[in-house]
Amino acid sequence: QVRLVESGGGLVQAGGSLRLSCAASGTNFKLFDMGWYRQAPGKQRELVASISTEHSTNYAGSAKGRFTISRDNVRRRLYLQMDSLEPEDTAVYYCTQMGTTYWGQGTQVTVSS
Predict the structure, then answer these.
(1) pLDDT (mean) for 23-44
(2) How many CA atoms lie within 13 A of 28 on its CB side?
(3) Among residues 82, 86, 87, 84, which one has the least CA distance to residue 69?
(4) Which pLDDT tens digit goes with each residue over 36-61?
(5) Beta carbons within 8 Å of 111's beta carbon, 6+ residues apart
């Protein structure tokens, strides 16, 4: 049974940083592209960043230059380093195994102005 568990969210002031983690179990993690999505209140869930099995990365425009996605295939973990956070980044952040129906439960990120 595939399980994805996010952690690392919290409350931070604008300009601050957070590092999100996603621990994967029950899956051959290294064989799948992985992604971070977020959903703000009243908005649709949107892709923030993704990383392929070969570690090539893709970012939404709002994340470029501020967020860094990475993965550790040995530990089966996905990371999202978020710097220069803005109030507009406030959302629930989810990790997902791309192309599958597997999602974590989400972790709340709140950025105060």
Answers:
(1) 97
(2) 2
(3) 82
(4) 999 999 999 999 999 999 999 999 99
(5) 11, 12, 13, 14, 16, 85, 86, 87, 88, 89, 90
